[in-house]
Amino acid sequence: MNGRLLLSVDIGSTYTKAGLFRLEGEELRLLGKAVRPTTVDDLGRGFAEARAAALAGTNLPPGAVPSDVPVYWSSSARGGLKIAAVGLTPDLTLSVARMAATSAGGKVVRAFSYELAADDLAELESVAPDIILLTGGTDGGNSRVVLHNAVRLAETHVPAVILYAGNRKVRDQVKAALSGRDVVTAANVMPEVGVIDIEPAREVIRRAFLERIVDGKGLSRVAAAAGRDPLPTPLAVFELVRTIGERVPGWEDFALIDMGGATTDFYSHTESFHGGDAVLLRGLREPKLKRTVEGDLGLRVSAEALYRSEAPFFESRLGTGGPAMADLRAYAGSVSRATDHLPSDERGRRFDALLAAACVRASALRHAGTIQRVFTPQGGFEVQRGKDLRRVKNLVGSGGYLAGLTGPAVLLEACAPDAADPDIRHLVPEAPACYADADHLIPLLGNLAADFPAAAARAAVAGFKPLRPLPS
């Protein structure tokens, strides 16, 4: 048999997916795929079941698939890696800390700026992060706030790794203040004002993922059987988005929304600021490749939180305080407890569509920047904050619900402006072509993107299903 066989497995919180691919030159072809419920008591058992099913579910003759097919794998089981970010100012070091955490595949569960107070410490203990990312000050810059926060963190009882990636001039003092705690250090995420260096912190976060997530629930046996460590699933997807944007013509400017039961991840690959004589950028210039993750936006586990945070959106569709809103609230409550629920009637399908639309819209508004018209005695100009998504040409839906879309209406909610303030415009996509990851290949190809970037990128785009409006 020509070509090289590769197996990719993703262990999710709900389902474990496996795909057998054949690599021929720079082309990947899917030979077999399997989905099995994630076995939360022993994640290795679900891995083995999905792996065996994918290897067996091909049209290849018996014996054509050797038993030692290399395995590339990822995991978002156990809820992924929870990170609390502590920075100096929201627009600078805290913003960069969030970039480092989310681009490494982590989920920022809390973010704090300036000096930590007693209620901040109590909040940290309540969310129990895996990592506390402590930043602040350029190299040789502010040290007072950083040292204050180090002393306060030493008072907490959170069994988290504390990653210090701030002002290197006081690194030794920070380590001394945190003596007895599990402390690691990385290069300053912002060594100079406007200079971003998140790669060293990303690598430390990745290692922490391996130590915290793999050591338990049977994943260490999976690592031994696979012969390699896993990627965090969001990091695998992040690298695939990068590869698509860099290697597939026509996909230089695109975004991907990965929506699940608990979170909605938004990935964008497009230049963040295009300038102009009358446009000023406030804050940092955001990276071309960006990920945000929203823990209150999800169709099942987070449905109640979604209902609360996006109530004005639902009211705009259903009417204020009417019976339909009460029914939607009850539905959100029931599916947040029965997370495997699949609607069997038109009412349930309508509510799921509304919940999905809210997730898409809110995640886009939070990911995108804004532009505001400002008038001065010297004339008017515009101030941009955050990332400009208006040049996004292609928008892809992934995850259980979005992968099954038959039309673009839900995805196009990402283009709906927020009318709350007429003087501020959100820089959301304007008129993108919409696609669905219909075969659920995004995480599986993400696992292969590092070693086989061109092949993984082309296979991903080839598998996207175009979504066209239904005839009127």
Give a brief description:
With 472 residues, the chain is an alpha/beta fold. Helix content is 35%, strand content 24%. β5, α2 and β6 (107-113) form a beta-alpha-beta unit.
How would you characterize the overall build of this protein?
The chain has helices at 43-56, 93-103, 118-127, 144-154, 171-177, 199-214, 219-226, 233-247, 303-309, 311-318, 323-337, 346-367, 400-403, 442-448, 453-463, and strands at 4-11, 15-24, 27-37, 71-75, 82-87, 107-113, 131-134, 161-164, 183-185, 231-232, 254-259, 264-269, 279-282, 289-294, 370-376, 379-385, 394-398, 424-426, 433-436, 465-467. The protein is α/β, with parallel strands linked by helices and 472 residues long. The protein folds into 3 domains: 4-77, 2-Layer Sandwich (Nucleotidyltransferase, domain 5); 80-213, 3-Layer(aba) Sandwich (Rossmann fold); 232-467, no CATH class. A 6-stranded mixed sheet has the order 14-12-11-17-19-20, sandwiched between helices. Strands 3-2-1-4-10 form a 5-stranded mixed sheet, with helices on both faces. Strands 6-5-7-8-9 form a 5-stranded parallel sheet, with helices on both faces. Strand 5 (82-87), helix 2 and strand 6 form a beta-alpha-beta unit. Helix 4 (144-154) packs parallel to helix 5, helix 8 (233-247) packs across helix 15 and helix 9 (303-309) packs antiparallel against helix 11. The termini are far apart. The mean pLDDT is 87.
Describe the secondary structure blueprint for this structure.
Blueprint: E1 4-11, E2 15-24, E3 27-37, H1 43-56, E4 71-75, E5 82-87, H2 93-103, E6 107-113, H3 118-127, E7 131-134, H4 144-154, E8 161-164, H5 171-177, E9 183-185, H6 199-214, H7 219-226, E10 231-232, H8 233-247, E11 254-259, E12 264-269, E13 279-282, E14 289-294, H9 303-309, H10 311-318, H11 323-337, H12 346-367, E15 370-376, E16 379-385, E17 394-398, H13 400-403, E18 424-426, E19 433-436, H14 442-448, H15 453-463, E20 465-467
Parallel strand pairs: 1-4, 4-10, 5-6, 5-7, 7-8, 8-9, 11-17, 13-16, 17-19
Antiparallel strand pairs: 1-2, 2-3, 11-12, 12-14, 15-16, 15-18, 19-20
Helix pairs in contact: 1-7, 4-5, 8-14, 8-15, 9-11, 14-15
